[in-house]
Design brief:
- One of its GO terms (biological process) is enzyme-directed rRNA pseudouridine synthesis.
- It holds the Pfam family PseudoU_synth_2.
- One of its GO terms (molecular function) is RNA binding.
- Keywords: Isomerase, RNA-binding.
- The protein folds into three domains: 64 residues, RNA-binding S4 domain (Structural Genomics Hypothetical 15.5 Kd Protein In mrcA-pckA Intergenic Region, Chain A, Roll); 91 residues, Pseudouridine synthase, CATH 3.30.2350.10; 179 residues, Pseudouridine synthase (2-Layer Sandwich), CATH 3.30.2350.
- Helix content is 25%, strand content 23%.
- The protein has ten helices and 23 strands.
- The strands form six sheets. Strands 1, 2, 10, 11, 15, 16, 17, 20, 21, 22 and 23 form an eleven-stranded mixed sheet that branches. The protein has a four-stranded antiparallel sheet with strand order 3-8-5-6.
- A hairpin with a 3-residue loop joins β10 and β11.
- It is globular and about 70 Å long.
- The termini are far apart.
Length: 452
């Protein structure tokens, strides 16, 4: 597969420019962040990408292989760590047992079935080192119940077929081992007055670890629908109508299907890349070019399995898949120490695509500890670009970072039943806006000092 980083890309459409101008003006006039923009647009306004490549060859085979791996119960591992340096226990075991999910390994660890140097370890994040002896027995699969919970949901739109929700940061989308409650799915079950389903053979992946967060999960295209439960189920999914996901730390818009037809129709739109998705982020530094297109495959980072990595050649990367993103600098902040950047996904490879591509461009998202945008990194760049008199103010601002500064701003799709082109937008939440405002104020102070 050719690796292309397009240094120039076609200008964004008039609709895009209007959205960008609207975004800038909305932030500058300090609107109530809790207010939500809700609009429907005509079919001519809702742009789509219809000329993109289809799914890469071999994905069906990969999916079939995973479906056949139904149980690892009783599998034993007794090995010594050969890697140099430190690595998470759950990541190391996942690498040693082919095909097993990391969530399954985490469950085994929490069950007390893993020991390091003959001492039981129950923390999946335990760091192992060269020479450590690890003994592990994979546990039996446990049923997982998804119970409805009275959780306040920011519902942007709802009808008989679909539900559009503004997910807050720090909320996990669906239940998984370690995150059985407090998820978006729990809230939807209660909101829609659905019964409590029980799932057998659960091997769900936890959003809290940002692991394998498929924007379009292959399993979602092969689910069955239970009319009694009003709920999509299969051996590997506990997502009632969840068509796509956002990482735990990412805020913004999600569409949820309320019936089988809508789920299949929306899933197909994601597969064909005709869903419009626009994100905004705050980055560490400013990209070299004000706008561009990144067409770099991404795959699992084999040295750190909680993240993806841009596959530019001989890297330690798992099976790579095509991933393309467009970006545009909306505003340069704090003397060039940061930027407000708009992103458009051309592929639905994984929601970590933006985070991986931002890291590849050398502008990791602020607050993204997994992809290099740590507080220390952000502070170093900001202090480098601003006078020492502002360093204390910058330090206080950076300490507020507690998640990747990424927000799903706009979501557009074709209504699965009416055929209407629909588009929804909502402003970033308060934490994002506070960081943005702080960076703007610092930039304004710097300009005043430079001109005085």
């Amino acid at each position: 597969m050719s690796l292309i980083y397009s240094l120039a890309c076609p200008p964004f459409s008039p609709a895009s420019r209007a959205l960008t101008n609207s975004l800038i003006s909305l932030f500058h006039r300090k609107p109530s962040i809790h207010s939500v923009i809700h609009q429907r647009v005509s079919s001519t306004s809702c742009s789509t990408v219809s000329d993109l490549d289809d799914e890469p060859q071999g994905e069906e085979d990969d999916f079939s292989d995973r479906r056949q791996r139904t149980s690892y119960a009783g599998v034993r591992l007794e090995e010594s760590v050969e890697e140099v340096g430190k690595i998470r226990l759950d990541s190391w075991i996942s690498n040693r047992i082919s095909g097993i999910s990391r969530a399954r390994v985490q469950s085994s660890i929490r069950s007390g079935l893993v020991s390091v140097n003959h001492r039981v370890v129950v923390k999946a994040s335990h760091m192992v080192r060269h020479g450590d002896k690890v003994e592990c027995t994979i546990s039996e699969l446990q049923p997982l119940k998804a119970e409805g919970e009275d959780i306040a949901l920011d519902i942007i739109y709802e009808d008989e077929n679909v539900l559009v929700v503004n997910k807050p940061a720090h909320m996990v989308v669906h239940p998984a081992p370690g995150n059985a409650t407090g998820t978006l799915v729990n809230g939807i079950l209660h909101h829609c007055s659905l019964p409590t389903p029980t799932f057998q053979d659960q091997e769900l992946l936890s959003d809290s670890d940002d692991f394998f967060d498929n924007e379009l999960d292959e399993y979602s295209l092969n689910q069955t629908y239970s009319k009694d439960a009003g709920f999509f189920t299969n051996q590997s999914s506990v997502r009632p109508g969840i068509v796509h996901r956002l990482d735990k730390g990412t805020s913004g818009l999600l569409v949820v299907a309320k019936d089988e037809h809508s789920h299949a129709h929306l899933s197909q739109q994601f597969k064909q890349h005709t869903i419009q998705r626009i994100y905004v982020s705050l980055t560490c530094g400013v990209p070299f070019l004000a706008s561009g297109r990144v067409d770099i495959p991404i795959g699992r980072d084999l040295t750190n399995r909680i993240r993806m990595v841009a596959d530019t050649g001989p890297t330690k990367c798992g099976k790579s898949r095509h991933a393309a993103s467009r970006y545009k600098v909306v505003e340069i902040l704090a003397g060039g120490g940061s930027a407000l950047v708009e992103w458009r996904l051309e592929t639905g490879r994984t929601h970590q695509q933006i985070r991986a591509h931002a890291k590849y461009l050398g502008i990791p998202l602020m607050g993204d500890e997994v992809y290099g945008g740590s507080r220390n990194m952000a502070l170093s760049l900001l202090q480098l670009k601003n006078p020492s008199s502002m360093h204390s103010q910058l330090s206080q601002l950076v300490q507020k970072l507690n998640r990747p500064c990424l927000h799903a701003l706009t979501l557009g799709f074709t209504h699965p039943c009416t055929g209407e082109k629909m588009q929804f937008s909502c402003l970033p939440p308060v934490d994002f806006a506070e960081i943005l405002t702080g960076l703007r104020n610092i930039g304004a102070s710097y300009e005043e000092m430079s001109t005085s």
